[in-house]
Hints:
It is a single chain. By secondary structure, the chain is α/β, with parallel strands linked by helices. It contains 3 helices and 4 strands. It has a 4-stranded parallel beta sheet, covered by helices on one side. Strand 3, helix 3 (about 105-110) and strand 4 (about 130-135) form a beta-alpha-beta unit.
Amino acid sequence: MPTLLHLDSSADLDTSRSRRLSQAVVDAWSTADPTGIVVRRDLHLDPVPHLADASLHWAPADRRPGANPPAEAETLQRVLLDELLGADIVVIGAPLYNFSIPSSLKAWMDHIHVPGVTSADTGALTGRPVVIATSRGIAYDAGSPT
Length: 146
């Protein structure tokens, strides 16, 4: 069965455009293949902490001698990597805050970007579609001040 990893990162739980857009992609995918599995991770409601140790930037075999990141941080990183590598498609809801992505999404990226594991030279993610549903700005709906 195909697996879709759905990430949301907006702090706006009620009117977020990126949440609505990413959910629309997930809904269309689920309708097209009802046998598919959706793994959902809400990075705002269940934030990933910033990297606990600089050695987590590297795969265990590539870490400098003596590197000893906290076991729980290594476990979390492995869970996040397994979710990503186990997905056939990734859908990311990514609003823009202050001209950048939310820090919760950046923290997730820091955990899953591991040279030798997910970097381009490994081919581990080659051919895997990634949909980024992004939004910016404020509401321009009828009746709003903008």
